[in-house]
UniProtKB/TrEMBL annotation:
The chain crosses the membrane at residues 90-112, 118-138, 159-181, 201-221, 253-271, 283-301. This is Membrane protein. Keywords: Membrane, Transmembrane, Transmembrane helix. The keyword Membrane applies.
Length: 416
């Protein structure tokens, strides 16, 4: 370690190592340990003779290492969020600089107009407001803080709604600036008429719908989580990919089409405002209806995603050479079903939180490493041992996922 460097888990701002290096180091150590155990290396002689003992020892070691990785990941996420407000503020003012450059280039030959001044002043006002918001919410991601959901991911519905809100605020400020600079009575009347609902009905309708959807989706997701119809796990930090993917990082059609169509419609409105800065952008009703259809598809996708985990069957796990027989204490049982691993819970620290209730006994699902991942647990099947504390007879089996959601109960017969 060089002079001035702290430990790998340090999160202070002046540390050359920082939280990111500490997290990467913990991940590298975990992967090395997992792949070594998958190859049969590193087992102590005291447990190597017993398959069940070695499996449990390996699972415990991986669980402890995964807990360190998760802790370093949370630390990195907090530091990343704390630094994000400067990046958001810098990006805002870079965009304002781009706007000034575009206006200066387009003013060559045509001349500088009051509309250009109003547009630049409106951009400075909006940028100042966003910068102030970034500073006040600097510990939670700056200006992006209102766009981050309860699961620490960027919310697609909030980002789309925020884009339209900022654009309409900018458009109104442009009209206000032009109205303040107008000297003639007829020009002021024309600018006030530009705010009539008849001219901006399409864009106002889109604004109302996307804002309502941002509120509705939050309520729908919250109720479905509380009703155990949707499994949600918290992310280490928000990412831009959250706008187009589900919690597991897979692209979703509902989110992609909503962002794509919303962005296209917003760009059209921006061009209309640039061409006619004396009135609200008159979004054609055809384009507005397309946005509404896209929004309805997005809401339908939110209603249809997820589902409660379910146990379909429980059987005795049998290896090659074993005799067929009933389930006894000490045997492994294979729980077959669906939804055991919630989206975004594929990391080792989340997998290690899965529990199976066998009668009154809580059994933690062991982690079984293979090159590149784990063979147990999986989304559709779990393998756990029946502990000696389980009394013979009819016993209920139930799985508790990493999201805290319980499955249905399945009854098995345990014999002496």
């Amino acid at each position: 370690m060089l002079p001035g460097e702290h430990g790998g888990g340090c999160t202070c701002g002046d540390c050359p190592h920082g939280a990111r290096t500490g997290h990467r180091r913990a991940v590298a150590e975990f992967l090395l340990m997992r792949d070594g155990f998958a190859a049969g290396q590193g087992l102590p002689a005291a447990v190597a003779h017993s398959a069940s003992a070695s499996r449990q020892w390996v699972s415990d070691e991986l669980t402890q290492s995964a807990a360190v990785v998760a802790e370093r990941g949370r630390a990195e996420g907090e530091v990343w969020l704390a630094r994000l407000w400067r990046r958001t503020a810098f990006t805002v003012w870079v965009l304002i600089g781009v706007l000034l450059l575009v206006q200066a280039l387009t003013a060559i030959g045509a001349g500088w107009t009051a509309a250009r001044t109003a547009g630049l002043v409106a951009a400075v006002l909006v940028g100042s407001a966003l910068t102030a918001a970034s500073w006040f919410h600097r510990a939670r991601g700056g200006a992006l803080a209102p766009l981050i959901g309860e699961d620490n991911r960027l919310s697609t519905s909030r980002v789309v709604a925020a884009g339209w809100v900022l654009f309409l605020a900018y458009a109104v400020l442009v009209l206000v600036g032009r109205l303040a600079a107008a000297s003639g009575h007829e020009e002021r009347d024309a600018l006030i008429a530009g705010l009539d609902l008849a001219r901006g009905a399409g864009v106002v309708t889109v604004l109302a719908v996307v804002c309502a959807i941002a509120v509705l989706v939050r309520r729908v997701v919250g109720l479905r989580v509380l009703g155990q119809r949707l499994q949600k796990v918290r992310a280490d930090r928000p990412r831009a990919a959250d706008l187009l993917t589900d919690d597991a990082g897979r692209g979703t059609f509902a989110d992609i089409q909503y962002v794509m169509i919303g962005t296209v419609a917003l760009l059209f409105a921006v061009v209309r405002l640039a061409r006619r800065p004396d009135q609200l952008p008159d979004l054609p009703w055809g384009l507005a209806v397309v946005v509404l259809v896209s929004a309805a598809t997005y809401v339908a996708g939110k209603y249809s995603e997820g589902g409660r985990p379910v146990i379909l069957s429980v059987v005795r796990s049998r290896e090659a050479g074993d005799l067929d027989g009933p389930i006894r204490t000490g045997d492994d049982i294979e729980i077959r079903g669906a939804g055991f691993v919630p989206p975004g819970a594929g990391t080792a620290d989340r997998l290690s939180r899965m529990v199976v209730r066998i009668g009154p006994v809580h059994v933690h699902v062991p982690l079984v490493p293979v090159p590149g991942g784990f063979s147990n647990p999986r989304d559709e099947v779990l393998t756990v041992p029946v502990p000696a504390d389980v009394e013979p007879g009819r016993v209920e089996v139930q799985v508790v996922t990493a999201a805290g959601v319980e499955t249905n109960r399945c009854v098995i017969d345990v014999t002496d």
